[in-house]
Amino acid sequence: IYPDKINNLKDLEKKINKFNGSELKTTATKLVFGDGNPNSKIMLIGEAPGYEEDKSGFPFVGAAGKKLDQMINAIGLSRKKNVYITNILPWRPPGNRRPTNSEILLCFPFIQRHIEIINPEILILLGGTATKAILISDDGIMRLRGRWHEYNSYGLASPIATRAIFHPAFLLRSPGYKRQTWNDLKEVKIKLSK
Ligand code: URA
Questions:
Q1: Ligand 1 atom nearest 129 alpha carbon
Q2: Hey, how many other C-beta atoms are within 10 angstroms of the C-beta on 122?
């Protein structure tokens, strides 16, 4: 099912909408595809929609979304103008449980093609689930944050500079990690201005 003949977001969204291979589609209310500016230099990837996102059809609109907006604003950017946001999974796992590895694997061709179509300069992975899925690493977010990685895939002309940062929902629960996240965001800002 690798959707590599799909070359635009509209067709990718249609393809995902028609896909009936995931149980999650049957329990979710809405498909949560993406938000922001598709021509952005920065693409952010979260874990999966939560309650608010499932109701509205847009990623990061609940409490974690408000926090994410603050983080984006902190480096002088705006959600609508300067970033594009999506999730590893396009459907909400029931009760907001963690996505399973098999759910991630099943939907992986979609996020892979999503990244290829946006083709950003910088990829920011929000939290451990997105980081583990995209960087395919045994290490957790604590070890993977704080430095640059490269993400590459079949349909990309060149690798994308990638940064893993703490998930905004985690920062709401553990504000002690804000300083490290601020340092990570500053590195993103520096790279953008190069
Ligand atoms: N958490 C996520 O990872 N994604 C969302 O869209 C909302 C909350």
A1: 3
A2: 19
